Amino acid sequence: MEEPSARGIAAAVGRLVNQCKIKPGDRLPTVRSVAVGLRVSPTTVSHAWRSLARAGLVTTRGRSGTFVRGEVHASPAARMLRVFGNPAGLSLDLSSGIPDAALLPDWGPSLARAGEQRFASHYGDVPVLPALEEILRDRWPFRPERLTVLDGALDALDRVAAITVQFGDRVLVENPCFPPMLDILQERGAQPVPVELDDDGPSPEAVRRALDANPTVFLLQPRAHNPAGVSLSDVRARQLAEVLAGTSVVVVEDDHAGDISSAPLVSLGRHLPGQVVHIRSFAKSHGPDLRLAAVGGPSWAIDAIDQRRLLGPGWSSRLLQAVLVDLLTDAAPTAEVRAARDVYARRRRRVVDLLAERGVHTTGQDGINLWVAVSHEQSALVVLAADGIGAAPGAPFEVAPLRDDHLRVTVGLVPEEDAARVADALALAANPSGRPPLADRRRGYR
């Protein structure tokens, strides 16, 4: 050990792991015993163990202790990669959760107009174009102290987690939820605490019970929930705000669907502006390759994000920000996005209605995805694949095991002419025996 600091201790342990003198599966000594042996404070050792966990070298198992990871080089995006594991050759891949490229607005004119501005950006520039910030503030669901723009919703979630989630923290997460959220929490060494959903959003009673775990953050999707299709109601937002008022829990809202969502945007920030960090993505509405999401909330959070980003990319492309300004203000792309929202809503309703006729009930009312209860996940995927249809397995979306197996199906990619075929295949996949589904599957959140 070169120095008796957290960094020195972590570096020494890291070298021992890399040299195989400490092997995968080995239990590290307790914090107290190391502190006594090295004559340092337990806090110093705790910081060292936390650094090792962030580097992916060790993992904590609660009271059992801290262990060297058996798969040091395992992918940090394990759940996310499982969602996109469909075999090639499918005629209709409904596993991706992405928008229909044919329904995205035409970027051509906007790119041409933005290109005329000839940006020569540098690190000292403001992170958000003034014209874009004005638009964002006008559309924000509450008055944020600060706004910034990042490289998509996942980049935003990752950067917000970096400043709000510490190793060992407990984080409230909707069950089911978007798999990369769980990957990010695992990478941070945090413990997700599942919160049940119903038709109006997260259960206030479940959140109240979960507060006993002393969580630091609550991750939620306010509308077009991926995968459950749930949107937060005004009443539910007030109820959740009442439960969280007076706590130090930071609420992180991921509005990933944005302008293609049929539901109005409801935010806890209207009630708890000092506790809410809101993320607004433009990937599904205006194009994934824009790589842009806006983040707004308390100054301490947004300032920390912008300052840390200076050591990396520095800023999000101001050229693309200018393209987004044009897309949000020009009549033609605005009309195209509005039309896309209506098409997605029709496609969803059509498949939901056809499934209901076949005895298959789904959750939620909004978004491009359906959460479908099935008898057996793997068997259902095989049945669909036999018909050339791909879907995402439900297990990666689960914070804790749900009562039924599920599939996530991106019905926003199902054209009218394929709706009946998809409904038939899903009905067979959900109930291969042909028996009527259980009545309690009508509320398939649990």
Automatic annotation (TrEMBL):
Residues 3-71 form the HTH gntR-type domain. PROSITE patterns: HTH_GNTR (PS50949). Keywords: Aminotransferase, DNA-binding, Pyridoxal phosphate, Transcription, Transcription regulation, Transferase. It comes from Acidiferrimicrobium australe. It holds the Pfam family GntR. GO terms for molecular function: transaminase activity. This is Aminotransferase class I/II-fold pyridoxal phosphate-dependent enzyme. It comes from the Bacteria. In the C-terminal section; belongs to the class-I pyridoxal-phosphate-dependent aminotransferase family. SMART domains: HTH_GNTR. Gene3D superfamilies: Type I PLP-dependent aspartate aminotransferase-like (Major domain), Winged helix-like DNA-binding domain superfamily/Winged helix DNA-binding domain.
